[in-house]
Design a protein that fits this description.
The chain is 54% helix and 15% strand. By secondary structure, it is an alpha+beta fold. The two termini are 22 Å apart.
Length: 385
């Protein structure tokens, strides 16, 4: 092996490069697939989003009354199952609001969504503890809020329930319920603490009414209902500035910034592995042709086909393992030094998966030329010499 160090050095560098690339790809893929498997926590099929524009001259009570009538008219349509008004942060819309407080004695940060009392039934949000707020909660001492499971698990993991707890988020709010997992940006979004605030809280703080809606339709009824919904909204608001979109399409669009790079990385990795396989074939075939006399002599001295095959495969695996160990040494520094916010388990997964993939490919690539070498007949090879 030392005499063939130049050829082995090229294999070593190929293995090292392949490991580094595959390590990054597997860590990135594992991290994002883990987030994709985490449920969104709400319905998006047969759901539409609507943007309307209320007259700015109307006071808040008039706008809320207009919203009430508009919702009733929408629910009277046979194709509509449920409807809710929401604030400026809508699912898959790309907007993010955050707030925080250090009142509990530590920094507590949370994303924010402003919704009404019909959001839970419209989006079919599953509750883990407590309930969704109702109109009666608007008259209580503290404005109501609902948080998601991540909020409770991250900040109060040892507490049985945080329902009825009061938090200071730009004023005291009382938690009336906790949802199951809920994330609204995309399937690949991180599970982040999230708080739902009522429409009254939005209007009290920002003096702005809700001008977006989520509407759940009967299955496969969007095409037949869109024009009727548009006409009803225009008639009620006396404003033609109405936008309607399909939330299922928005979800696919929101996933693309992660999905497209994943596909690109997979294609690059596939080409890299193909090049490594072809390189190994070329190097091994060349080495075998140059070592035919050695192979013939070993077989003449009693070496079996299995022993010859094992020799060539073992030589390649020694070089491969050396490259993998060096690559793993550098790769393990990433989680140890905490250079990214990605949990360390995905980097260790990337190390193990990259090593396994390369070992399997190298073994398979080495077996074919090695078995051919083992099939050489001593008499023919020694006669050539």
């Amino acid at each position: 092996m030392w005499n063939k160090r130049r050829a082995n050095g090229m294999i070593f560098l190929e293995i090292l490069l392949a490991f580094i690339v595959l390590f990054g790809v597997y860590a990135f893929m594992g991290y994002n697939l883990d987030r994709y498997r985490s449920p969104l926590g709400f319905t998006y099929d047969d759901m539409i989003g609507v943007k309307i524009d209320f007259d700015d001259a109307l006071d808040s009570l008039t706008v809320m009354e207009q919203q009430r009538r508009l919702r009733e008219d929408l629910l009277a349509m046979p194709a509509i199952e449920a409807a809710t008004f929401i604030g400026p942060v809508n699912p898959f819309g790309g907007n993010t609001w955050q707030t925080g407080t250090d009142a509990p004695g530590f920094l507590l940060r949370s994303q924010m969504m402003f919704v009404d009392e019909y959001f839970q039934e419209t989006a079919e949000v599953e509750m883990m503890d407590g309930r969704w707020f109702t109109a009666d909660d608007y008259r209580s001492k503290y404005p109501p809020m609902v948080v998601n499971r991540e909020f409770k698990d991250r900040y109060y993991p040892g507490v049985t329930s945080i329902v009825d707890s009061v938090f200071d988020f730009n004023g005291d709010h009382i938690v009336v319920g906790v949802t199951e997992d809920f994330k609204y940006k995309s399937n690949f979004a991180e599970n982040f603490p999230l708080s739902f605030f009522s429409q009254l809280a939005r209007m009290d703080e920002f003096k702005e009414p809700f001008e977006m809606m989520m509407i759940r339709l009967q299955p496969n009824s969007l095409a037949d209902s869109e024009e009727a919904i548009y006409n009803l909204l225009v008639s009620n608001t006396k404003n033609t500035d109405v936008v309607i979109w399909d939330m299922a399409k928005d979800r696919r669009q929101s996933n693309r910034p992660i999905l497209i790079p994943m596909i690109i990385l997979l294609v690059i990795s596939a080409f890299l592995l193909i090049n490594i396989a072809l390189g190994l074939f070329g190097v091994l075939f060349t080495q075998i042709n140059r070592r035919r006399a050695e192979i013939g002599l070993r077989k003449a001295m009693g070496a079996t086909r299995a022993e010859v095959t094992t020799q060539f495969v073992g030589e390649v695996l020694i070089v491969t393992v050396a490259g993998l160990l060096l690559g793993a040494f550098f790769a393990v520094q990433v989680p140890l030094l905490e250079v990214t916010p990605i949990p360390e388990k995905f980097f260790y997964f990337g190390i193990g998966a990259a090593m396994l993939t390369i070992l399997v490919i190298v073994t398979l690539c080495a077996l074919i030329p090695s078995r051919q070498a083992a099939g050489l007949q001593p008499a023919d090879v020694l006669h050539e010499g």
